[in-house]
Write a structure and sequence with these properties.
CATH architecture of the largest domain: Sandwich
Distance between the termini: 26 Å
Number of helices: 3
Shape: elongated
Length: about 600
């Protein structure tokens, strides 16, 4: 048994009775934190909050006020087409759209339709069947006043004259699996069963039908022909580049390997940027680098894309859900326009039809039954608000800049404003929900009705349950009952008490006897001397380093701690005797390290 109560740096000391305390170092305190999202420039698909705010998910919501807010996305109407059998519109089949001479045409399989509207109201009245080509379409191009349809190896290309309304199977005189407008004349690629895969056929003039042809050999098999940046481009197995003349091919980039079955299903130019589907992901072409770069949207498969105003629209099968989703990109970020989970129906093959009717800009297939479509209005018109009847957004995982600490979430809310005066007397309902388990379960924090003519701002906020504990919180805002206006979400926020988690370590507080004669545990007398005992302790404190420490129960635990002497107070009963002998004591604080 040790004859001393404690040992510090190997030296023994006796503890004054009634002064010993052993406790935790530090108290788990709380501090108030507030987290906000008030800039929505980057769109969706940010799982955890970063310095550039970007929400996690949403549906039928898109940016407002130059991406500083979020409001209702495009209106959607479930439309039943009236095309008679056997020429019904099939929502499962790929479609193309072409605008010519003030008419928007839709091509699907063999069938050619035009978009119609009510002459008085301008409202969409459906697809009108015009006629059929000889074989199903595999590619479509508008060349002058001719819609040229490629049929692959099934037969020669078909044409439809938009000025005369005449179909023909002889105006091209060649089979093709790719067709494109080449500065006003037809360019095509014949099926590999007909000629070499690297051969490109260019019509010699725009007036002779069937034309004479110039053959141009590219570096490898041709995969795609499309217009972009003022030229016709070709994608081969090896290269992407411009066809700038009848004998000139200017390579712009090396092509990535195409391996997925739906690679290059579509390649579109939109507002000066080139978009394509490659490797189950949307890519764009970076002209300055000469590279294809992921654009941030992935899926198991794609079901078409189109361009409408400033929006690039793409339909995919969700990577995680396996459900169809309709996404839009405004040049800044991706926004979920609609999805099968929300609508309850398959959504496929979007085509741009803007300009053909006042209340529709994009048309898609709906479900699997013939003649079923969705009509989406992307742009507001005088007589048609074109707003989704409800929308929802879900924040990223919010952590108040302390991602690793537990928090007691106290309050959440959403701030709305519409300084442009868009509000009307119609009430909309706002609901604010929250989740502290990553979206597995949700609870409602607040709900209320907002009238647009009662002011131009609103707050919907609520206190949370005491059980709202977690490192993260997600806030979901739903706006419903929309008719002709929707408030703009400018900020969503959450308040929490951060539960600091201090280092788990021990602290000791006690007073040691500093006397010229100290009685030890075994009854013996320590005659080291008061000044020597005091000087040793002051020296350990001055060094500022760590010391070994044996506690009062060392005989039972055999544990020697490493500690730092952080506080020392010396008390001497007779100060005049301090230089010779002393009857004093020293109060100590040690912290485990």
């Amino acid at each position: 048994m040790d004859v001393y109560d404690v040992r510090i740096a190997g030296d023994g000391y006796m503890v004054k009775a009634g002064t010993y305390r052993r406790e935790q170092d530090g108290v788990a305190e709380t501090r108030l934190a507030r987290v906000r999202m008030n800039d929505f420039y980057g769109g969706q698909q940010r799982a955890a909050q970063l310095e550039r705010d970007k929400i996690w998910r949403g549906c039928a919501a898109w940016p407002a006020y130059d991406s500083q807010g979020i409001s209702a996305g495009p209106g959607r109407v479930a439309f039943a087409e009236t095309v008679a059998a056997p020429n019904e519109y099939d929502p499962k089949e790929r479609s193309w759209s072409v605008a010519a001479d003030g008419v928007v045409y839709v091509i699907q399989q063999k069938r050619l339709y035009k978009v119609t509207k009510n002459a008085g109201t301008g409202a969409y009245t459906g697809l009108s069947y015009i006629g059929s080509f000889a074989n199903p379409a595999v590619d479509v191009a508008l060349v002058g006043q001719r819609i040229v349809v490629a049929h692959g190896a099934l037969g020669n290309c078909g044409t439809y004259r938009t000025d005369t309304g005449v179909f023909s199977t002889t105006e091209v005189g060649k089979m093709a699996d790719l067709v494109c407008n080449f500065v006003g004349v037809l360019a095509l690629h014949e099926p590999a069963s007909v000629t070499a895969a690297y051969r490109l056929q260019l019509a010699n003039n725009a007036t002779a039908w069937p034309p004479t042809w110039t053959v141009m050999n590219l570096d490898s098999g041709i995969k795609k022909l499309f217009p972009h940046d003022g030229d016709m481009w070709a994608m081969t197995e090896l290269t992407a580049g411009r066809v700038t003349g009848y004998t000139s091919f200017a390579a712009e980039a090396s092509m990535p390997r195409t391996a997925a079955p739906d690679d290059l299903t579509w390649v579109l130019t939109h507002n000066g940027r080139l978009y394509l589907w490659l490797g189950n992901e949307v890519h764009t072409f970076n002209k300055s680098k000469g590279e294809f770069e992921p654009a941030g949207l992935r899926g198991r498969a794609t079901y078409g894309a189109c361009s409408v105003g400033r929006w690039f629209v793409c339909c995919i099968e969700g990577e995680q859900t396996g459900k169809t989703e309709l996404w839009g990109h405004d040049g800044r970020g991706w926004w979920l326009i609609d999805c099968e989970e929300e609508s309850g129906s398959l959504i496929r093959w979007p085509v741009g039809v803007n300009g053909a009717a006042d209340n529709v800009d994009v048309l898609t297939g709906r479900g699997a039954v013939v003649n079923q479509t969705y009509a989406y209005q992307f742009f507001r018109r005088v007589d048609y608000a074109g707003l989704a009847d409800h929308w929802t957004i879900t924040s990223s995982l919010l952590d108040a800049n302390d991602r690793d600490l537990e928090k007691a979430w106290r309050r959440v809310g959403a701030e709305f404003a519409w300084p442009d005066g868009r509000g009307t007397s119609d009430l909309v309902t706002v609901t604010v929900d929250y989740s502290t388990d990553g979206g597995a379960t949700w609870a409602t924090a607040a709900s209320g009705n907002v009238a647009g003519n009662a002011g131009q701002s609103a707050t919907v906020a609520g206190d949370l349950s005491p059980a709202a504990l977690g490192k993260f919180i997600q806030v979901r805002v739903t706006v419903s009952s929309i008719v002709d206006w929707s408030p703009v979400l400018l900020c969503l926020w959450a308040e929490a008490e951060v539960l600091d988690d201090p280092t788990r370590r021990r602290r000791w507080r006690f007073t040691v006897q500093c006397k010229d004669a100290v009685i030890r545990r075994d009854g013996g007398v320590d005659v080291t001397g008061a000044r020597v005992l005091a000087d040793r302790l002051w020296g350990a404190w001055s060094a500022g380093g760590v010391v070994t420490f044996r506690d009062i129960d060392y005989d039972l635990t055999s544990t020697e701690y490493t500690a730092r002497l952080v506080d020392i107070v010396e008390k001497i009963s007779k100060p005049r005797d301090a230089g010779t002998f002393a009857d004093g004591e020293i109060e100590l604080s040690l912290v485990e390290v």
